[in-house]
Amino acid sequence: MVEAWERAARQIPAGRDLPRPHLIDHIPTMLEEIADMVDAPRAGRIPKPPSETAQAHADERLEEGFDLASVVAEYALLRSTITRSLWQKQNLPGGPEAFLTLHQAIDAAVVAAVERYTRARDRGAGESRAELERVLAQVDIERLRFRDLVNNLDHVVVWEADAQSLRFSFVSERATPVTGMTPAEWMSVPDFWGTHVPPAELVRLLVLFRRCLEAQTDERLDHRFLRPDGRVLWVHTGVHGTERAGAPMFQGVTIDITELRESIQAREQILEIVSHDLRNPLSVITMNLELLARRAPPGDAGAELRQRAETTLRHARQMARIIGDLVDLAAVSAKRLSVARKPEDPRRIAQEAVASFEGRANEKGLALRSEVVGESPRVLCDHDRVIQILGNLLGNAISATDPGGSVVVRVEAREDEVVFSVADTGRGIPAEHLPNLFKPYWRGDASAYRGTGLGLAISQGLVAAQGGQIWVESELGRGTTFSFVLPVDRS
User: Cα(418)–Cα(259) distance, rounded to whole angstroms?
Assistant: First the structure.
């Protein structure tokens, strides 16, 4: 009977591809319960309808994706399978009451299954609706949060525009206080950027837009912005290319950086004052201290005067170095570092740098030397700036190396470049500090080194300005090597 029902159930689309154990499911148990319900009156027992099994079967069918019509169809097939099997075996229940009891048992199973199926389905739909409502509520919260974030960013206008026409489809509310124009006014001006950006900078901005569209890159530019009230702002415009419904779009931000530019200009003015108005008096002080130290009376009478003059002279020279470092750092940051490049002999540069630090190395008991590996073609560089770089690296190497150690300046040609390196046998640098070494003012162990922490940042800028690059390799307890490359002269 189970096999006959299985063959019939395979004709239902929902049961066609179901594995046999899932298709048969609770049917054998249900058949036994239906038979028991028919036999119960003759045995003097109270019949127990197959309701629980039918309910469990309905739960399984709901999980397997059967619709209600398929569940009812299964029970119709079950009814016909039972009656056909009994008819073929000439084993129909005796008398009308037994035959009626058989159909009542099947009807009870159908009712129980339908009730359980619909109740479970509606409960699931309710849960789905509740989950959907929860998700929609969360979406609304996130939408409001995003709107508040975008519209309350100080000094920032967030916008979206068509990448071809540059017409805006969205402009945040901060456009009004930042630019003096409402979002609607931004969106209504046909040639917005041409109206509010000076011509020379407009060309660069339009090139930026085209590059962002064609190369699918993120681009940014600092430029002026002309407000309707006549004020001129400095803004930073950043653009990201994307698509919306197959059409290219720009998502951008325009940030008011006027105050930042003014603060940078003020800093540069201060540095100019430091450079010119402090350097000259400091040079006079240094020159007179040197003269005073030389002309101090001999013997004990002038010893104290000479000592005080030399101490003050060291501090004056340190001040001069700090002023020079600050001016150089400002030039590096503004990318206005001046270098005068010409062909130079790298061997002589290394020897000159070593010679200037021999006295300091001897005082500390260090071996200091230079060496050249192979041929040394001329390099295209600024002689004084390379001496400055090597001086920064040598000063650090000597400070980091204990007495009895060594410092080596090495020169080696590699293809179209020459590598300068300063290697020491000092304490080494922890690996976690290496990424920060070229940051201005950063010092991993302030107690171990004196100075402002500007030397490596300036050195990096000086190397880059001459077309090279600088890097570091270090191992704790085994020393450190700073290396930089400069291009070979091909003239």
Answer: 43
